[in-house]
């Protein structure tokens, strides 16, 4: 039985929910509220599951995996034919680079832990935190837009016309940008790909508004 420890608005958990949908895998969502009671991810009970105190974590018959990209690649390799990564080594490297650009270069700077530190330890006000958030997404999207626009391998999705690992990362990051009212006009390729993916059932089912813990 697959169980995904998830928070409805977590970008990293959102990625894995999309991947589960694309793979057609039955799973149960175990909500972990990142704000309630100081953050349920910090509780001793959850730390027994994931010592990093982060979501997502995936339990596969009691074997716990962490880190969204590692979880997605595990699901792709363990369940059915690999479909979230292309076949050739060069193409796989390209898709991984796009995914890592989002998951490692853009998202961590805007993670809840960072925003909390800025607020509670660095004394940064809400307006400045919002400006920080928008700045780093814009910087990351500028580079990502160029990578996608310049490549002939970009199709309806980040790589070709079938959604894969990079799209699992892109759509949640676009969701975050829209939450902070970032203008996507300068990033037409990113906006186009995200809009296409959002028409697909796996992406729709994974949307934060459709989660059991949505507020």
Description:
It is a single chain. The protein has about 220 residues and is of the alpha+beta class. The chain folds into 2 domains: about 1-80, 3-Layer(aba) Sandwich (Glutaredoxin); about 90-200, Glutathione S-transferase Yfyf (Class Pi), Chain A, domain 2, CATH 1.20.1050. Helix content is about 55%, strand content about 10%. The chain contains 9 helices and 4 strands. A 4-stranded mixed beta sheet has the order 2-1-3-4, covered by helices on one side. Strand 1 (about 1-5), helix 1 (about 10-25) and strand 2 form a beta-alpha-beta unit. Helix 1 (about 10-25) packs parallel to helix 3 (about 70-80). The relative contact order is 0.16. The mean pLDDT is about 95.
Which characteristics define this entry?
Glutathione S-transferase Yfyf (Class Pi), Chain A, domain 2, 4 strands, globular, alpha+beta, single chain, four-stranded mixed sheet, 9 helices, Glutaredoxin, 215 residues
Biggest sheet, strands in spatial order? 2-1-3-4
SS strand fraction: 5-15%
The 3D shape can be described as: globular
- The low-confidence parts are none
Q: Please give the number of β-strands.
A: 4
Helix residue percentage:
40-55%
CATH topology-level name of the largest domain: Glutathione S-transferase Yfyf (Class Pi), Chain A, domain 2
Mean pLDDT: 96
Enumerate how many helices there are, as a single number: 9
CATH class of the largest domain: Mainly Alpha
Q: Kindly name the structural category.
A: alpha+beta
Determine the N-to-C terminus distance.
26 Å
Main sheet characteristics: 4 strands, mixed
């Amino acid at each position: 039985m697959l169980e995904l420890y998830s928070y409805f608005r977590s970008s990293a958990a959102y990625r894995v929910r999309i991947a589960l949908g694309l793979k057609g895998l039955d799973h149960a969502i175990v909500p972990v509220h990142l704000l309630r009671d100081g953050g349920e991810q910090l509780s001793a009970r959850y730390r027994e599951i994931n010592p990093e105190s982060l979501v997502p974590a995936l339990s596969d018959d009691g074997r716990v995996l962490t880190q969204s990209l590692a979880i997605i690649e595990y699901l792709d390799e363990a369940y059915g034919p690999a479909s979230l990564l292309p076949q050739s080594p060069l193409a796989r490297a390209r898709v991984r680079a796009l995914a890592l650009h989002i998951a490692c270069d853009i998202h961590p700077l805007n993670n809840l832990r960072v925003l909390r530190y800025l607020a509670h330890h660095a004394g940064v006000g809400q307006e400045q935190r919002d400006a920080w958030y928008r700045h780093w997404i814009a910087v990351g999207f500028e580079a990502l837009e160029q990578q996608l626009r310049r490549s002939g391998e970009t199709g309806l999705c980040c790589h070709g016309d079938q959604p894969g690992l990079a799209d699992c990362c892109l759509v949640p990051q676009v969701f975050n940008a829209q939450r902070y009212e970032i203008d996507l006009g300068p990033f037409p390729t990113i906006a186009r790909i995200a809009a296409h993916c959002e028409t697909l059932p796996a992406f729709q089912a994974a949307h934060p508004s459709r989660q059991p813990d949505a507020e």
